[in-house]
Amino acid sequence: MEVFAITGLKNTLKTRHITMISIGGVIGTGLFIGTGEIILSTGPAAILSYIIACLLIVLVMQMVGEMSAFSMKGEQTSFGTFASYAGKYIGDWAGFTVGWLYWASWVFIIGLEAVIIGGMLNAWFPMIPVWTGTVGITLIMTAINIFSVKSFGEFEYWLSFVKVTAIIVFLIVGLAMVLGVWPNINSNGLEILTEHGGFMPKGILPIFTSVVFVIFSICGAEVAAIAAGESENPARNIVKAIRNVVFRLGLFFIGSVAIMILVVPWNNSKVLSAPYANILEMAGLPLAGQLMEIVIFISLISVLNSAIFTSSRMLYDMARNNEAPRFLNSIKSRRGTPVFAIISSTAVAYICALFYFVSPKVIFFFLANSVGGLMIAVYIFIAIAQIRFRRQYQKNSGGNLPIRMWFFPYLSYATIALLAVIYISQAFIGSLRMQFLLSTMVLAASIGFFFAKKRLAIKRIGSKKENLVFDRFIK
Questions:
Q1: Domain spans, the chain
Q2: DSSP string covering 222-243, please?
C-alpha cells in the first residue's frame, strides 16, 4: 500500500484556514459539557487526567506529523491518511482496520452530533421535531462540504473563531477571579484544592478512568493534519498545525480545568453542571448562560462539519488504496470534492442517527460505547506505524525530517505502552467494561473481515486459474 498523490482534490484551503482549524479543532462539546462531570467524578486531581490525555494526544500528533510531513516533503500534492501510513508500514490488514475503524467512529459522531443539535433546536423551538433538526442540519453541512473544500474551510474558520473567542474570554475572566482581581470575587487560593476531601478525594483510579473520556473529547486534533493535505502549501501547513498542538491543548483544556478547580469546590454539582456558563455568571457577566448555549450549539455544528470532512477523506483514501469500493474515489465536482465519499458517509450517519429514535438503549448505546475505545486502538496503530516508518527512513536515508518524534524510540514505545494500559484497564473498571468489550469486538471483527475477504479473493483467483487451464486443455 502506498501514500498516493492527490488526483482531483483541490488544494484551496488557505494557511489561515488550517491555522484556525488546528486551534479550534479540539474544542468540541466534550470540553464544554463533559469537563464538569469529570471534575465531579475525580476531584481536583482531574487536572492530572487532562495532563495525561493531552500529553498522549500531543505525542500521537507528533508521530502523525512526522509521517505526514515526510509524505508531503518536496511535493505539493501528496496525500495520505492514517490508514495509508498503517498500511504501508505495518501491513495491509492494519491499513484496512485503521481506515474502517476511524471512518466508522467519525460517521457515528456525525449521527451523534446531529441528534444533539436536533434536540437543542427542539428545546428552543418546540414546533421543530428532533428528527427534522437532525436531518436538516446534516443536509446543510453535507451541501457545504460538497460545494468545495474552500467552503468547508471558510465555514469551519468562523465556527472555530467563535469557539476560541469564548474560551479566551472564559480564561481571562477565570484567571482574574483566581488572582482575586475581578470585582466582587474573592480568591480561594490554593487551599481549595485540598479543603474538600483532599486533592484525590475519590482515589487514584478515577484519574485513569477519566483519561479515556478526555481522549474521546479531545479527538479531532488530527483533522488539521488531514486538512493540510488540501491546503495551498501542504508541507508548510502540516508542520505549523502539528506544532500548535501543545499550545492549544495546554491552554484550552488544562487551563480551563485549572481555573474551574481553583474557582469552585470540586463537589459543587450545581456550578459544574454547566461550568463555563455558571462561572461567567458568578463573575456577573450578563446573558452568560444564553451565550454559552449558543457557543455549544456552534461547537456541535463545527464538530459535525469536521466529521463529514474527515470521514469522507478517509473513505476516499481507502477507495484509492482498494480498501473500499472504487467509485468512492471519484471526483465528480468541478471544485474537486469527493462527492460520493461525502454522500456515502452522510448516508451511513443517517442510519446511526435513526438508531437513536428506534433503539436508543441497545444499538445506539452499542455504537456510543465503542467509539472511545476504538480511537485509542487507532492511536496505537499510528504509534506502531511511526516506529516502523522511522526505522525504514533511517535505513534508507537518515536525513533531516521536518518534524521528528522526540526521544525516539523510547518515547514512541512508552506511548504505545501507556495507550495499551489505558485500553486494557477499561476491562477492570465497571463503568468502562462494556466499552472495552464492544470496542474489542468491533476491532476483532474488522481484522477478521479483512483476512476473510483476502482468503475469498485468493480462492477466486485460484478458481479463475483452474478454469483457464481447463479451457486450454479442452481446446
A1: 15-474
A2: THHHHHHTTBSSHHHHHHHHHH
